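From the methods appendix. Each design record in this collection lists the tokenized structure first, followed by the designed amino acid sequence. Records were kept in a plain field format so they could be parsed without special tools. The example shown here is representative of the layout used throughout.

RECORD:
FOLD TOKENS (338 positions):
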């Protein structure tokens, strides 16, 4: 074992550079996390002893390894260069390193600072959340990286509105049903591609029935009333005629609910079926209703005209046939039929 001496100081304590008579090591070495870093120190033939230190810990003294870290190896120890290599660099390797040399019994040092760049990584993000319309929502997206990543929130809607955030929080006051959906958090720096995660925000709201349309149907034909309601959670439907709630399968009607749509079907419309019906949409936040009329559908003008033409043709054919019978009777000398 050997030590450098400088005014009574023991080896392992970094010594400030004196009047530099040998070239300095590079000031900074920048590598990405997981890559390898080579720390080089230029020397000359006047150097008698060399060492690399990390802060106050000796890594190498000449060719002798003092570090117990298998990732640290010596790659060059010549008359012109003394270099070490650190494999699979991690964030805790960042910091100052000192190349200490001794020439003519005068120790000198040259310093290099290892900078470790870390790709952006989202380390904590809000879980999917369900809230009622009008509530306030705070979303968290905590990211780490070197340089410190920029966090950007974006609502993945048709408008694709972006929320630029200076910190990890996104606050939405009085959220509406139109602000539901996926929110994308992106953490970006210049080291690697952004890290992207998503949070699903579900906004509950009471039912709202779209503009209902009255429907016409002829007696004996099929008639269908439709009721569409948007709601979260999805609405349940009920149908009424006046004060009576209708039941599926009774009185020749069928009620069918699929998602936002409910249909009331009459397979054989009768006079008693005409009238005003009420559709009620219900979920845990409230209910709403709408009035829909099933009215009697008259024959279309085109159909009535076609029937009239057909009637006239039938009369004409019948009349012509009668005259032909009279003519035949006269030719035979017999009385024409009445």
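DESIGN:
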């Amino acid at each position: 074992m050997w030590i450098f001496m400088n005014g009574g100081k023991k080896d392992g304590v970094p010594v400030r550079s004196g009047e530099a008579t040998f070239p300095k090591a590079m000031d900074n070495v920048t590598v990405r996390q997981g890559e390898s870093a080579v720390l080089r120190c230029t020397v000359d033939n006047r150097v008698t002893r060399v060492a690399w230190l990390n802060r106050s810990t000796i890594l190498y003294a000449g060719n002798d390894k003092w570090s117990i870290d298998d990732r640290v190896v010596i790659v060059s120890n010549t008359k012109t260069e003394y270099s070490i290599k650190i494999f699979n660099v991690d964030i805790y390797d960042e910091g100052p390193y000192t190349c200490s040399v001794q020439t003519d019994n005068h120790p000198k040092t040259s310093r290099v600072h290892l900078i470790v760049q870390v790709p952006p990584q989202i380390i904590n993000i809000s879980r999917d959340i369900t809230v009622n319309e009008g509530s306030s929502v705070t979303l968290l997206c905590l990211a780490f990286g070197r340089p410190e990543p920029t966090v950007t929130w974006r609502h993945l809607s048709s408008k694709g509105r972006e929320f630029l955030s200076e910190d990890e929080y996104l606050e939405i006051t009085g959220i509406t049903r139109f602000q539901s959906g996926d929110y994308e958090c992106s953490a970006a720096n210049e080291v690697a591609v952004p890290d992207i995660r998503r949070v699903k925000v579900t906004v509950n709201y009471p039912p709202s029935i779209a503009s209902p349309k009255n429907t016409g149907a002829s007696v004996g034909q099929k008639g269908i009333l439709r009721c569409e309601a948007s709601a979260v959670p999805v609405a349940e439907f009920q149908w009424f005629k006046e004060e009576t709630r209708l039941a599926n399968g009774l009185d020749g009607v069928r009620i069918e609910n699929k998602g936002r749509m409910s249909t009331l079907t009459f397979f054989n419309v009768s006079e008693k079926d005409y009238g005003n019906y009420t559709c009620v949409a219900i979920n845990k936040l409230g209910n709403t209703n709408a009035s829909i009329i099933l009215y009697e559908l008259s024959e279309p003008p085109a159909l009535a005209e076609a029937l009239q033409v057909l009637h006239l043709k039938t009369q004409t054919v019948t009349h012509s046939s009668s005259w032909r019978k009279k003519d035949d009777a006269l030719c035979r000398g017999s009385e024409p039929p009445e």
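APPENDIX NOTE: The chain has a mean pLDDT of 83.
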